[in-house]
Design brief:
2 domains, 10 helices, three-stranded mixed beta sheet, alpha/beta, Alpha-Beta Plaits
Length: about 300
């Protein structure tokens, strides 16, 4: 496709803003899922009391998704410290900072939580993020306009942006939806050498977690993180250290999209809608070859 002229491009952007000015309410996008469907989602259970911090899951994710290695200062080791555009999962170490917090340390796995009712899906204005029928929250880079609203709506601060790319996209764990389509499990779960990370049907994993809590109550905090938090997630956690110390937000059981949808009837400036359309126009032009100079 040949580049668009600057004059025609400005016309497209202007029309987008004008269309937005005539609108007063943003569309109400809901990602609600029935509870019975959620029990059948593909999910993972991470037991922090079994994890040895080997980061085999990080390596498996990197190899499967072909992301770039993030080396340590010596340039010798793959040593990511946080989630990034190239690191979609990793193991971090929690260590108490004073005696009042006790002496127990813990490893904790970071990744997309694949919420039952995901705020990123509800908030995305162009449906670049979608909730799959079997559980994973997936991302379509061809739809994305780069607004990064998903980064603000996610209560777990998971989505990352490729700041160093000319045409950046959002990246995050997809729960290996491509592997699931072939009957395989998530790469990280299948690589875990200790069984700290397992995968299966969400309802079955919740039952397994409840069984562990009942059989060894002194081993765990009496909470399955992700069972009900913010409406539930497809990545579930057991821990011997309180979850707030591991960096998890203190969330009620109500899904985040339901909280935001309470304000959906508030009249918003139409320019917001037009701005979204204009961003989409810019994204389309960049992806199709840019602008050409006019004589």
């Amino acid at each position: 496709m040949s580049p668009m002229s600057r004059r025609n491009f400005l016309k497209v952007v202007g029309a987008s803003l004008a269309a937005g000015a005539s609108l007063s309410v943003l569309p109400n996008v809901s990602a609600r899922s029935a509870a019975e469907d959620a029990d059948n989602y593909v999910a993972m259970l991470y037991d922090a009391t079994i994890c040895v911090g080997c980061n085999a899951c990080t390596n498996a994710c990197r190899q499967w998704n072909k992301t770039k290695v993030e080396v340590d200062p010596t340039g010798l080791y793959d040593a990511p410290q946080e989630l990034s555009a190239d690191t979609w999962t990793l193991i971090q170490l929690y260590q108490p900072t004073d005696s009042a917090e006790g002496s127990e340390y813990s490893f904790v796995k970071r990744q997309c939580m694949h919420c039952v009712d995901p705020a990123c899906v509800s908030g995305c204005p162009v449906h670049a993020l979608q909730k799959s029928a079997n559980g994973p929250v997936t991302y379509d880079k061809d739809r994305c306009i780069g607004c990064r609203y998903c980064m603000y709506t996610c209560p777990y601060h998971v989505p990352r942006f490729q700041w160093d790319q000319v045409i950046p996209v959002v990246t995050k764990c997809t729960l290996c939806s491509d592997r699931l389509a072939d009957g395989k499990g998530p790469a990280c779960a299948e690589r875990c050498p200790t069984g700290a990370l397992t995968w299966g049907r969400r309802g079955d994993l919740i039952a397994e977690a409840e069984k562990r809590l009942a059989n060894e109550p002194g081993r765990y905090v009496n909470h399955i993180f992700g069972k009900d938090d913010a409406g539930g997630t497809s990545v579930l956690y057991l821990s011997h250290v309180p979850f707030d110390k591991l960096g998890f937000p203190n969330l009620k059981s109500e899904p985040v999209p339901q909280l935001s949808e309470r304000t959906s009837d508030i009249f918003l400036p139409g320019i917001v809608v037009g701005g979204t359309c204009a961003l989409a126009a810019v994204s389309w032009v960049v992806k199709k070859g840019g602008l050409e100079d006019e004589a």
